[in-house]
Predict the 3D structure of the following.
Amino acid sequence: MDWQHHMRQNAYNWLLGDHPTGCLPEALLLLLGNPDLFDRDTVFPLFDDIQSVGAFLTGRYESVEVALTRPRFGAPIVAMYLEVAAMAGVRRVVAAGYVGGLRQEVHVGDLFLPSAAIALDGTTHAYSLGDTQLPGSARLHAALLELATQRDLAYTEGIVVSIDALMLETTALVAEWHEAGYSAVDLETACLFGVGGKVGLDCAAAHIVSDSPFEADVDPGAGHMASRSEQLTVALGALTSPEHR
Protein backbone atom coordinates (compact mmCIF):
# COMPACT_ATOMS: atom_id res chain seq x y z
CA MET A 1 0.00 0.00 0.00
CA ASP A 2 1.23 3.49 -0.89
CA TRP A 3 0.69 5.16 2.49
CA GLN A 4 0.83 8.72 1.16
CA HIS A 5 -1.91 7.89 -1.34
CA HIS A 6 -3.91 6.35 1.51
CA MET A 7 -3.57 9.50 3.64
CA ARG A 8 -4.43 11.78 0.73
CA GLN A 9 -7.57 9.76 0.06
CA ASN A 10 -8.47 9.94 3.75
CA ALA A 11 -8.15 13.73 3.66
CA TYR A 12 -10.29 13.89 0.52
CA ASN A 13 -12.97 11.80 2.20
CA TRP A 14 -12.88 13.94 5.35
CA LEU A 15 -13.43 17.15 3.39
CA LEU A 16 -15.46 16.03 0.38
CA GLY A 17 -16.98 12.67 1.29
CA ASP A 18 -18.17 10.79 -1.77
CA HIS A 19 -18.07 13.80 -4.11
CA PRO A 20 -16.04 12.79 -7.19
CA THR A 21 -12.78 14.38 -8.32
CA GLY A 22 -13.59 17.39 -10.47
CA CYS A 23 -16.50 18.37 -8.20
CA LEU A 24 -15.12 21.87 -7.52
CA PRO A 25 -14.73 24.75 -9.99
CA GLU A 26 -11.29 26.00 -11.01
CA ALA A 27 -11.45 29.16 -8.85
CA LEU A 28 -11.25 29.01 -5.04
CA LEU A 29 -11.71 31.87 -2.58
CA LEU A 30 -9.83 30.79 0.53
CA LEU A 31 -11.22 32.65 3.53
CA LEU A 32 -8.55 32.75 6.24
CA GLY A 33 -9.06 33.87 9.81
CA ASN A 34 -11.22 32.66 12.68
CA PRO A 35 -14.08 30.58 11.17
CA ASP A 36 -16.08 30.98 14.37
CA LEU A 37 -16.29 34.69 13.50
CA PHE A 38 -17.23 34.03 9.86
CA ASP A 39 -18.91 37.14 8.45
CA ARG A 40 -21.64 35.35 6.52
CA ASP A 41 -23.65 38.55 5.97
CA THR A 42 -20.71 40.10 4.11
CA VAL A 43 -19.70 37.04 2.08
CA PHE A 44 -22.92 35.31 1.04
CA PRO A 45 -24.65 38.27 -0.69
CA LEU A 46 -21.79 38.34 -3.21
CA PHE A 47 -22.82 34.94 -4.61
CA ASP A 48 -25.80 33.39 -6.37
CA ASP A 49 -26.91 29.79 -5.91
CA ILE A 50 -24.69 28.83 -2.97
CA GLN A 51 -24.39 25.05 -2.59
CA SER A 52 -22.60 22.89 -0.03
CA VAL A 53 -19.96 20.47 -1.34
CA GLY A 54 -18.54 18.80 1.75
CA ALA A 55 -16.35 21.28 3.63
CA PHE A 56 -16.51 23.65 0.65
CA LEU A 57 -19.24 25.84 -0.79
CA THR A 58 -19.81 26.76 -4.40
CA GLY A 59 -21.62 29.74 -5.85
CA ARG A 60 -21.70 32.03 -8.87
CA TYR A 61 -19.96 35.40 -8.82
CA GLU A 62 -20.55 37.55 -11.91
CA SER A 63 -21.84 34.36 -13.60
CA VAL A 64 -18.57 32.49 -12.90
CA GLU A 65 -18.66 29.47 -10.60
CA VAL A 66 -16.36 29.82 -7.60
CA ALA A 67 -15.61 27.55 -4.66
CA LEU A 68 -15.09 29.01 -1.21
CA THR A 69 -14.03 27.56 2.09
CA ARG A 70 -12.89 28.70 5.53
CA PRO A 71 -10.39 26.32 7.17
CA ARG A 72 -9.27 26.81 10.73
CA PHE A 73 -6.08 28.61 11.71
CA GLY A 74 -2.61 27.58 10.67
CA ALA A 75 -0.57 25.96 7.94
CA PRO A 76 -1.25 22.23 8.62
CA ILE A 77 -4.99 22.50 7.99
CA VAL A 78 -4.55 24.93 5.08
CA ALA A 79 -2.10 22.50 3.43
CA MET A 80 -4.69 19.73 3.62
CA TYR A 81 -7.41 21.93 2.15
CA LEU A 82 -5.12 22.98 -0.72
CA GLU A 83 -4.18 19.40 -1.57
CA VAL A 84 -7.81 18.29 -1.53
CA ALA A 85 -8.89 21.32 -3.55
CA ALA A 86 -6.32 20.50 -6.25
CA MET A 87 -7.53 16.88 -6.32
CA ALA A 88 -11.11 18.15 -6.73
CA GLY A 89 -10.43 20.39 -9.74
CA VAL A 90 -9.30 23.77 -8.36
CA ARG A 91 -6.56 25.48 -10.38
CA ARG A 92 -6.28 28.99 -8.94
CA VAL A 93 -6.69 30.31 -5.40
CA VAL A 94 -6.90 33.77 -3.89
CA ALA A 95 -6.81 33.95 -0.10
CA ALA A 96 -8.66 36.70 1.74
CA GLY A 97 -7.38 36.84 5.29
CA TYR A 98 -5.63 39.07 7.78
CA VAL A 99 -2.06 40.07 8.60
CA GLY A 100 -0.32 42.02 11.31
CA GLY A 101 1.59 45.04 10.07
CA LEU A 102 5.33 45.26 10.69
CA ARG A 103 6.06 48.68 9.20
CA GLN A 104 4.66 52.15 9.77
CA GLU A 105 3.47 52.42 6.17
CA VAL A 106 1.36 49.24 6.53
CA HIS A 107 -1.79 50.77 8.01
CA VAL A 108 -4.50 49.00 9.99
CA GLY A 109 -7.63 48.56 7.87
CA ASP A 110 -5.79 48.77 4.53
CA LEU A 111 -5.22 45.93 2.10
CA PHE A 112 -1.91 44.10 2.09
CA LEU A 113 -1.01 42.30 -1.16
CA PRO A 114 1.98 39.97 -0.58
CA SER A 115 4.31 39.38 -3.52
CA ALA A 116 6.17 36.66 -1.61
CA ALA A 117 6.18 34.95 1.77
CA ILE A 118 8.91 33.88 4.17
CA ALA A 119 8.27 30.41 5.59
CA LEU A 120 9.09 30.12 9.28
CA ASP A 121 6.48 27.42 9.89
CA GLY A 122 7.19 23.70 9.89
CA THR A 123 4.49 22.64 7.44
CA THR A 124 5.71 24.84 4.60
CA HIS A 125 9.31 23.76 5.23
CA ALA A 126 8.22 20.12 4.89
CA TYR A 127 6.76 20.82 1.44
CA SER A 128 9.31 23.33 0.16
CA LEU A 129 12.40 21.36 1.23
CA GLY A 130 14.23 24.32 2.73
CA ASP A 131 13.11 27.15 0.44
CA THR A 132 12.23 29.99 2.78
CA GLN A 133 11.14 32.79 0.39
CA LEU A 134 8.22 31.68 -1.72
CA PRO A 135 6.64 33.79 -4.48
CA GLY A 136 2.95 33.83 -5.23
CA SER A 137 1.47 33.75 -8.73
CA ALA A 138 2.83 36.80 -10.57
CA ARG A 139 -0.25 36.85 -12.81
CA LEU A 140 -2.80 36.81 -9.99
CA HIS A 141 -0.76 39.25 -7.90
CA ALA A 142 -0.65 41.69 -10.82
CA ALA A 143 -4.42 41.32 -11.19
CA LEU A 144 -4.95 42.16 -7.52
CA LEU A 145 -2.71 45.24 -7.80
CA GLU A 146 -4.57 46.39 -10.91
CA LEU A 147 -8.01 45.94 -9.35
CA ALA A 148 -7.05 47.62 -6.07
CA THR A 149 -5.64 50.56 -8.03
CA GLN A 150 -8.75 50.79 -10.23
CA ARG A 151 -10.96 50.92 -7.12
CA ASP A 152 -8.70 53.54 -5.52
CA LEU A 153 -8.16 51.37 -2.45
CA ALA A 154 -5.45 51.99 0.11
CA TYR A 155 -2.98 49.11 -0.06
CA THR A 156 0.64 48.17 0.34
CA GLU A 157 2.54 45.25 -1.14
CA GLY A 158 5.58 43.48 0.21
CA ILE A 159 6.83 40.33 1.85
CA VAL A 160 4.85 38.57 4.58
CA VAL A 161 6.53 36.31 7.14
CA SER A 162 4.45 33.26 8.11
CA ILE A 163 4.90 31.69 11.52
CA ASP A 164 3.28 28.83 13.44
CA ALA A 165 3.62 29.94 17.07
CA LEU A 166 1.29 32.90 17.39
CA MET A 167 1.63 33.16 21.15
CA LEU A 168 5.42 33.42 20.85
CA GLU A 169 5.25 36.55 18.68
CA THR A 170 7.34 38.87 20.83
CA THR A 171 8.38 42.51 20.61
CA ALA A 172 11.92 41.34 19.88
CA LEU A 173 10.78 39.16 16.98
CA VAL A 174 8.67 41.96 15.54
CA ALA A 175 11.76 44.20 15.60
CA GLU A 176 13.83 41.45 13.96
CA TRP A 177 11.31 40.95 11.16
CA HIS A 178 11.05 44.70 10.63
CA GLU A 179 14.84 44.91 10.36
CA ALA A 180 14.84 42.05 7.83
CA GLY A 181 12.53 44.07 5.58
CA TYR A 182 9.33 42.10 6.07
CA SER A 183 6.13 44.13 5.90
CA ALA A 184 3.56 41.87 7.59
CA VAL A 185 3.14 38.65 9.57
CA ASP A 186 0.53 35.88 9.45
CA LEU A 187 0.12 32.12 9.86
CA GLU A 188 -0.75 30.81 6.40
CA THR A 189 0.45 32.75 3.34
CA ALA A 190 3.79 30.93 3.01
CA CYS A 191 1.86 27.65 3.14
CA LEU A 192 -0.51 28.94 0.47
CA PHE A 193 2.35 29.86 -1.86
CA GLY A 194 4.59 26.88 -1.05
CA VAL A 195 2.07 24.04 -0.89
CA GLY A 196 -0.09 25.55 -3.62
CA GLY A 197 2.89 25.66 -5.96
CA LYS A 198 3.79 22.06 -5.18
CA VAL A 199 0.32 20.79 -6.08
CA GLY A 200 -0.05 22.88 -9.25
CA LEU A 201 -2.16 25.79 -8.04
CA ASP A 202 -1.76 29.46 -8.98
CA CYS A 203 -2.03 31.29 -5.64
CA ALA A 204 -2.20 34.89 -4.49
CA ALA A 205 -3.53 36.74 -1.46
CA ALA A 206 -5.36 39.94 -0.60
CA HIS A 207 -5.27 40.46 3.16
CA ILE A 208 -6.58 43.13 5.53
CA VAL A 209 -4.12 44.59 8.04
CA SER A 210 -5.85 43.80 11.33
CA ASP A 211 -3.28 45.10 13.82
CA SER A 212 0.09 46.77 14.11
CA PRO A 213 2.55 47.71 16.83
CA PHE A 214 2.41 51.25 15.42
CA GLU A 215 -1.39 51.79 15.43
CA ALA A 216 -4.59 50.99 17.33
CA ASP A 217 -6.47 47.83 16.38
CA VAL A 218 -9.38 47.79 13.93
CA ASP A 219 -12.86 48.26 15.36
CA PRO A 220 -14.93 45.47 13.75
CA GLY A 221 -18.08 47.51 14.23
CA ALA A 222 -16.75 50.57 12.42
CA GLY A 223 -15.20 50.75 8.95
CA HIS A 224 -13.75 47.26 9.00
CA MET A 225 -16.66 45.57 7.23
CA ALA A 226 -16.45 48.05 4.36
CA SER A 227 -12.80 47.08 3.99
CA ARG A 228 -13.82 43.41 4.04
CA SER A 229 -16.30 43.96 1.21
CA GLU A 230 -13.67 45.70 -0.90
CA GLN A 231 -11.15 42.96 -0.11
CA LEU A 232 -13.54 40.25 -1.29
CA THR A 233 -14.49 42.17 -4.42
CA VAL A 234 -10.82 42.53 -5.40
CA ALA A 235 -10.07 38.88 -4.63
CA LEU A 236 -13.06 37.62 -6.59
CA GLY A 237 -12.30 39.97 -9.48
CA ALA A 238 -8.82 38.47 -9.82
CA LEU A 239 -10.29 34.97 -9.73
CA THR A 240 -13.09 35.47 -12.22
CA SER A 241 -12.36 38.28 -14.71
CA PRO A 242 -11.64 36.76 -18.15
CA GLU A 243 -8.48 38.85 -18.60
CA HIS A 244 -7.11 37.56 -15.28
CA ARG A 245 -7.77 33.84 -15.72
